[in-house]
Amino acid sequence: MKAIIPPGVSESSFNKAIDEFRAIVGAEWVFIETKKVDLYRDAYTPMDPEDDFYASAAVAPKSTEEVQAIVGVANKYKIPLWSISTGKNLAYGGSAPRMTGSVVLDLKRMNRVLEVNEELAYVLVEPGVSFFDLYDHLRKTNSKLWMSVPSPGWGSVLGNTLERGAGYTPYGDHFGKQCGMEVVLANGTLMRTGNGAMEKSDSWQQFKYGFGPYVDGLFTQSNFGIVTKMGLWLMPEPEYFMCGMVHVRDEDQLQNIIDTLRPFMLDGSIDCAPSIYTGTFEASFKTVRSKYKEGPQPMTKQELRSMYEDLDLGWWNVRLSFYGDEVIAKHNWNKVKTAFSRLPGVSFEMNEFSTPLNEGALGYNEKLQAGIPNMAEWNVINWGPGLSGHMDFSPTCPLIGKTAEKQYRLFSKMVQDAGYEYVGGFVGRERGLLHIVPLPILKDMPEVNQRGRETVRKMVDEGKKRGWGAYRTHLFLMDQIAESYSFNEGAALRFSESIKDALDPNGILAPGKQGIWPKSYRQEDPS
Ligand code: ADP
Asked: Which of 35, 384, 436, 519 is 20 to 30 A from 323 in CA distance terms?
């Protein structure tokens, strides 16, 4: 196979750039051999090999100064850099770049927890700090702070926050709890946001907004800078914790479930991020599919019902948790339980825990609701025969039962029509829902993956017609989804492009990320 180099860059410029990267970080931290660069491919790619996303090389700096020097070289030779923190962006592309030929800027060696502030409940971290690293650090230092973790919890705190990932505690909107960033801009300038913009600030992690425009959001899901430090608020350990599930037997109760949750989510009686998943999703942690169905044919509704019955699961399973003062937590749960009791075919389980938690006594659901990283949800990818991953379509939905019902019916039918089971569900946000609709990826079965890609593309189009945008996406859908946000001839994307052109005239930072292409690439898609 011909060596991959960035588009529009000569081989000699590329080689010079690689030599200069070596001089900055040391030869052992520049990866150019196919065997090593292949590690940056999307391990769960839905693409055929000829359309996949390939890096040309990778460089792994140890410090912000090295990042700045790398950016200098990238500008000199017009080398596109694709920044990753730990590169575990499962179902959305892993560590692979949007544009083939980009050099992966792997920040995992910058992995210091720079500060844990117990009094004001925040941390300051570098990109390579994983959720597991931070959790271990907090335990070792006997911290009284709780994290919020996505599922699975193997990625980085900073990368997940930049992608606007979701956790399940009251701090589950990770970007919502971010405070203060340090960013290397495309021209190599080091900038701090919020109060960090002062020479000396004693409140960088306490005030998000600083003075003037609030810009932190510009560095999330974007290609405007390389974030080298980030502040994040953590939750003070509550005195008491309850976690459990509401199981609802019937498929047609989704609307009532959402409408039951809404007032409690709005008035704060429920302050966690509840998840509302199908029994199939839950079954994947408890059993193997072959016990109930051999072969790849999707399970019929009757087969699903009897499996759920056997496993004491509902068609819908609402995971909920309550925190804080014991009397208040119990009171809130009782209100919620009473409201759910009006639904037909409902059953409850709820467990109580005093703090500090004894981790050994917790199941995966409780761990997720208590912000303890774990890999339990990984089991979903072992569900179908031969499954090696999933590609997710992740539309947003208002917190309104009727709309959630419509969205579920439309997308679950599209999944079924493509020949698969719907193994998805919703995660609650303050006033909305993130809907996760996975489609299977089967290694060595290109026709299955192609059908999956076509189905997802159709879903994006159907979503666009109804105003349901994706909140996050895999590399292969970035352009299509960016275009689905098309109000006033795509004014939002044009705005992003103007910022891109002003900040990054050489187009060196993550070309194509979120559909934002630098000017020089915009005439044609170079990938
Ligand atoms: P994680 O391993 O935490 O799941 P990744 O490291 O894969 O997350 O990052 C997810 C995406 O976020 C990357 O593909 C990249 O587009 C962006 N990203 C990650 N880290 C940075 C960073 N430090 N600066 C700018 N963008 C980043």
From this structure: 436
Catalytic residues: 92, 471-472
Beta bridge partners of 414: none
- H/E stretch holding 340: helix 326-340
Helix (H) or strand (E) holding 407: helix 401-417
434 lines ligand 1 (CB under 6 A): no
Q: Is the CB of 478 under 6 A from ligand 1?
A: no
- Write out the DSSP string of 275-323: EEEEHHHHHHHH--GGGT--SSSPPPHHHHHHHHHHTT--SEEEEEEEE
Q: How many CA atoms lie within 13 A of 117 on its CB side?
A: 15
Rg (CA), the chain: 23
Q: pTM for the full model?
A: 0.96
DSSP 102: P
Task: Count other Cβ atoms within 10 Å, centred on residue 27.
Answer: 11
Q: Give the DSSP letter string of 142-206.
A: T--EE----SS--SBHHHHHHTT-B-SSTT-BTGGGEEEEEEEETTS-EEE-GGGGSSS-S-TTT
Q: What are phi and psi of 396, to 5 degrees?
A: -90, 155
* CA-513 nearest atom, ligand 1: 16
Is 155 close to ligand 1, i.e. is its CB under 6 Å away? yes
Which amino acid type is present at position 168? Y
CA 471 to chain centre: 9
Nearest-angstrom CA–CA distance, 394 and 86: 22
Name the nearest CA neighbour of 424 among 416, 434, 436, 415. 436
Cα–ligand 1 centroid distance for 159 (angstroms):
4
Question: What's the rounded Cα separation, in Å, for the pair 479 and 95?
Answer: 18
In tens digits, what is the pLDDT along the chain, a chain of 527 residues?
568 999 999 999 999 999 999 999 999 999 999 999 999 999 889 999 999 999 999 999 999 999 999 999 999 999 999 999 999 988 889 999 999 999 999 999 999 999 999 999 999 999 999 999 999 999 999 999 999 999 888 899 999 999 999 999 999 999 999 999 999 999 999 999 999 999 999 999 999 999 999 999 999 999 999 999 999 999 999 999 999 999 999 999 999 999 999 999 999 999 999 999 999 988 988 898 999 998 888 899 999 999 999 999 999 999 999 999 999 999 999 999 999 999 999 999 999 999 999 999 999 999 999 999 998 877 777 787 677 788 889 999 999 999 999 999 999 999 999 988 898 999 999 899 999 999 888 878 889 899 999 999 999 999 999 999 999 999 999 999 999 999 999 999 999 999 999 999 999 999 999 999 999 999 755 55
